[in-house]
Amino acid sequence: MNAHDYISDVLDYIERTSLGQVTFKQAATEILRALEPVLDREPKYIKHKVVDRMVMPERTNIFRITYANDKGEPESHYGYRVQFNSAIGPYKGGLRFHPSVNLDIIKFLGFEQIFKNSLTGLSMGGAKGGANFDPKGKSDGEIMRFCQAFMNALHEIIGDVIDVPAGDIGVGGREIGYMFGQYKRIKHRFEGTLTGKGLSWGGSLVRTEATGYGLVYFANEMLKKAGRGFEGLTCAVSGAGNVAIYTCEKLYQFGAKPVTVSDSTGYIYDAEGIDVALLKQLKEVERVGLREYSVRKAGSKFIPVSEYKPGRNGVWDVKCDAAFPCATQNEVSLADIEVLYNNGCRLLAEGANLPSTLDAMEFMAAKSDFLYGPAKAANAGGVATSGLEMAQNAAMESWSFEKVDARLQGIMKHIFDISYETSVEFGRPGDLVLGGNIAGFRKVADAMIDQGY
Ligand code: NDP
């Protein structure tokens, strides 16, 4: 059987067995179609049915989480931990708390994570988890009780050599702290079973900044390969959380200017450049909506979601040289990327997971004058630094900011190089979707074959 037919069969199998899981199917389609050239070249992968096995999580955990809200009433949510693949190391991947979380979303994130973690060159398997819980508007006490209830269910299936969760949307340092405390209370063990911890209790310097910083390091490698640089570029950034904030911060350090950020209420356009200190104050300390930015920063403008054109994400209307989607999945449609391109944008690097729809990705791939950095390569800096946090915990060490940052830069360069070299090897120079997916796949697939079935 040729690779194209084999992949079509696997996608049909997903369609039949993962009913209604459209985002998982979308992610699988993007990844599996990119693998066809390596499957045609190396028949062992089809012979050992590696891809059939990879699309099935090793273990899928779904549990009820009940906690008491501030009125003393019980509230219940679905909790998930999908442990997708442990061929090259303990499961590793973030936890997302957002009302949109369901098994489909967690499976797409967990599947992507397998290839992303492999690309970092570190020994980490792929997993993802979370809950359909909305942290917005909840008191600190409610967040704490929810995190404790979540850990009451999760503790049985994680551990420092089993599964090491981290943050994602809605899960930052505060939530990791509450979960770590509860894990320790239940297990009587101080072990690095979560990453993104506080600095005085096992955390790593640079972990907070890592995904955004890593994204810009990666984009810088893309620009360098094209004989260009960041100096003087105007950038549009979406999102206003962890990844967006530290993307903006690093863009300034490279001489570029971010002029937008967005959240679920709308976006900010600030022609002078986003004020990162104000953004941190609003999002990390006060936890308020972005309209407040325009109240406190003269000359900036807030455009609410209600004013977006139908089917469009307004933040991409802003003229820019480079775009950095850092909010959530499917936030760049074909119509969005067409507007970006026609306005002169020539680079898009993904901080969020799966932010571009399949047709938007095809549009970017087809443009020879456009640089496209797909998420699993471009945003791997977060999980890579989590891997460095695990290494520090295991050695009972705390590395300096400079040391971790230098390792992060080295890892992002390695990911770019291996993705680019693989794209050249398969005759599609610069196709980082193909290069990244194949490079990530080979290591995991070979390990699966070595370990038998
Ligand atoms: P945060 O929770 O810190 O921030 C998320 C931001 O995106 C918020 O501004 C939020 O707005 C906005 N957002 C979320 N969902 C939507 C939506 N449906 N529509 C519009 N805006 C939305 O999350 P992170 O910054 O950590 O994560 C952002 C993306 O980066 C995610 O795709 C995540 O998977 C990915 N990522 C994160 C990593 C990390 O280390 N944190 C690592 C690799 C990838 P609001 O506050 O109004 O909800």
From TrEMBL:
Keywords: Oxidoreductase
Top-level taxon of origin: Bacteria
SUPFAM superfamilies to which the protein is assigned, alphabetical: Aminoacid dehydrogenase-like, N-terminal domain, NAD(P)-binding Rossmann-fold domains
GO MF annotation: an example: glutamate dehydrogenase (NADP+) activity
Listed Pfam families: ELFV_dehydrog, ELFV_dehydrog_N
Domain Glutamate/phenylalanine/leucine/valine/L-tryptophan dehydrogenase C-terminal, residue spans: 204-452
Family: Belongs to the Glu/Leu/Phe/Val dehydrogenases family.
Subunit structure as annotated in this protein's UniProt entry: Homohexamer.
Protein name stated in the entry: Glutamate dehydrogenase
Species per Swiss-Prot/TrEMBL record: Campylobacter magnus
